[in-house]
Structures are given as structure tokens and as C-alpha cells.
Design a protein that fits this description.
Chain lengths: 277, 229
Amino acid sequence: MPFQTFEHIEREKQIMPQSNPAIKQVTDAIIEVKNLNLYYSEKKALSNITMGFPRNKVTALIGPSGCGKSTLIRCFNRMNDLIDIIRLEGEIKIDGANIHDSKLDVIELRRRVGMVFQKWNPFPKSIYENVIYGLRIAGINNRKTLDETAERSLKRAAIWDEVKDRLHDSAMGLSGGQMQRLCIARAIAVEPEVILMDEPCSALDPRSTAKIEELIRELQGEFTIIIVTHNMQQAARVSDLTAYLYLGELIEYGMTKKIFTAPLRKETNDYITGRFG
Amino acid sequence: MIKNLDLELEKLKTKILQLGSEVEKNLFRAEKALLLLDEPIAQEIIDNDEEIDNLEISVEEKCLQILAQHQPVARDLRFVVTVLKINNDLERIGDLVVKIADRVIILVRKNIHELKSANGVQFPEQFSHMFAETKKMVKMCLDAFVDGNTDLAYKVCIWDDEVDKAKSIIREQTEEILQQDPGQHKYIAMLLSVSRSLERIADHATHIAENVIYMLQGHIVRHEIDDLE
């Protein structure tokens, strides 16, 4: 069976969006995106994205630079609100609730949808204070609760053994890989439902990368993780589902094992095999 | 980087085709050796098998090297995995052809020529047909691989029945011969062994075709082909 042609898929998408075989329909989606268009002033950055992100699974977003991966995940915790020139059409629901509802508390949304960035960004505070920062600003000051949360989060982020004897030392003295795991601990301390990861390993060495990847697999099942990555092998290793975006369009979305062995679209094959362009 | 991978994949393709060509040549020799009961040709098959074994190892090493160095995915991954599997099937075909050559040498050394003329030993006619069908299957599955021809690969899977039929006819013919002259049982056993080898060669050709379908379509069709017939 040859790859399906772009035109063929386009036609199908227009007639019956749900029938597009290259876009997986997700049941039990925690995040549902429907007909999402996003513009930076006049420039369209995301075009008619409709997809669901399954609960407690890892979904990888792949695609060349500028394809809209980061822009898409930044929609989910409304980080894009901070950019004035962005205009958005369509609908994003988390657990069935529209995140653009005027009654929605954006701070609460960002607690539910945490984020880890490409470059680790610990605060210039102690390791302990970094982890419990979210709780402190939520007004929680009970020592026991804070201690328990710090220990639990650091353990879940697989960094506890490395820092337990120096919790009150500055976080700035940690290695890059440790700082990134600290940031993950800080993100999970507030018990989010979704963790967005924007190229979390791109500045790390292979050993630290392996630790973060291992961590992602351990957190899966407890959290819904959406990871943007340029590393094809990483997407193949850590994710359950993979979405390929190109020029703001969702080209293919399916089970990772399927995408990396037998993608339906020629464009996906060309991208993941490095023959793109 | 991708240029390097493409070069490596091209080299791998050349190697596996070289192996396929050597195996095919030996299969042609086996037909000649059996039908003419020619010991030198049978010996040539045995001598050439070393080359086949060396090529098989070389293909496997290349596959492992590509997997380790390039971590291919999607179509490239399916290609490398298919080559690994085809490599194994071709080597097994090579061994079965050697087995036929061994049988031919036994037949010749037991002087079947004389028995044939003096005691009326008959040679099952169906053998040349079975050889023709088996050779056709091996050629077709390799052509399907080279040309990326899914239809041809499916055809090979269905063609397997022809070889099975030929084997049944040979069994019937040998039973008739045995009834006429039970003294020929040792020779008949040799001939039946040859037909079994041919049947198994056809099975390996079918495996190759199934793997070619996977390579082209990304869908495993093993155990599904029966439904198509």
C-alpha cells in the first residue's frame, strides 16, 4: 500500500473530520482541541487543529522548527495570553471545561497544567524552597505539609537521593540535569493533572537525558504528559502517542509504535527518517 | 547524516541481492544435478555454500551496524528488519539446496544409473515441475523485494500451493514405484527427501514474500494469507 496522498487526506478531513485515518480519535481525552486556529498578528501559526490528548499517557509532539508545537502546548495553560499579538479561534477543553471561559481562574488552570521548559529555571533559592514554592504562594505554610510535599515530589522526580542531605543549599549549585529534575519536582508538587514539557532534554547530556526519560515513563500513569521534542528517538522511547505537525497543521497523530514503524503519511515518514525537505 | 544512511542501505541491498543471486544459482544447479544425476554439479553446490554462509554473516553484520549507528525508523527500519529476516530465509534455502546435493551424491554413488536401466527404476516425472515451481517462487519473491512489488509478493504466498500439490503427486508416484519394486525403497527415500527440501524452500520463499509485504505496507500478513486464497 503506497502512502496516502496529501490531497486525499485533505479532502477526507473536509468532508468528515472524524474519518481521517491519519489522525487518531482518542477516547478518554483529558484535553480536547477542536478546530483550533492561532494567529500571530496576521500570520497563521496553527491551522484547524482537532485532536484529543489521552489521560495519564505521554504524547509527543514532533515537527520541524516553527511548525507550531510549542505554540500548541502553550495554549493549554494559556501561556499565550502573555503575548498580545496572539489571536485564537476554536475550542480547548480540559476535563470538559472550556479553558477560555471567562469564569475560569487562570492561576488554577496553571496549577492543573504545569510546565517544564527547555532551559531549567530554578529560582535563586534553596532546593527545598524551590519545590514548595507553588504551595507557599497558595498560602500553605504548614511545616509538616510542606516537608512531606517536598520529600514526595523530590522522590517522584527521582532526585531525592541526590539532594536529601542538602535541601537547604542553593538550587543554583546543582548540575543541569539535577536542576531540570528539580523543576519537574516543583511542577508536580502542586499536583497538576497535566505536565507540559517543552524540549526538556535538549540542553542535557545523554546520562541526564536518560534520567529524565526514565522519569517521564515513571510519571506516566499518574499525570498526562505532553512533550515537545526534536529528538526522534526520544519521542519513540518515551511516548505512547505521537503527533506530527508541519506548518501549523496536524499531519498525523497515532500510536507511537505505529508512527515509528509504519506511518500512514509520506510526509511523516520523510520527517522521522530525516529525509524532510 | 541521511546521505550516509542511504549509502549504507544501498550497500545492504546490494549484499542481500548478491546472496539471493548465489542461492538462486545453487538452486538451478540442484535441478541440473538431480535430473542429470551429475555428481560434479552437486559438489559445486556444496563448495559454493561457504560463499553463501559468508554472505549471510556479512549481511547480518551490516544490519546490526546500521541499527546501532543510525537507529533507523519507519520505512528504513522496516527495510533493515526485512533484510535481516530474508537473510535468514535465504541461508536456510542454501542449506536445503546443499541437502539436495547430498542426496544426489548418494544416489549417484549407489549407482542409480545402472539400477534405472537394469532394474527399471523410475524417476518421478513431477520433479522437473516441482523444481520449476520452486525456482519461480524464489525468483518472484526476490523480484518483489527489488521492485517493491506487493502484488507479486502476494502471488508468491498463494503460489506455495502449487509446490505442495507437486509434492503430493511425487509421493503418489513414488508409492506406485515402490509397489512395483519394493527393492527401490532406499532410492525412493532419497527422492522423497529431495521433494521435502523443495517444499521447505517454497515455504522460505513464502516467508520472504510475507516479509516483503510487511516492508512495503507496514502490516504483518503472516497467518492472514490463507484467508485470501
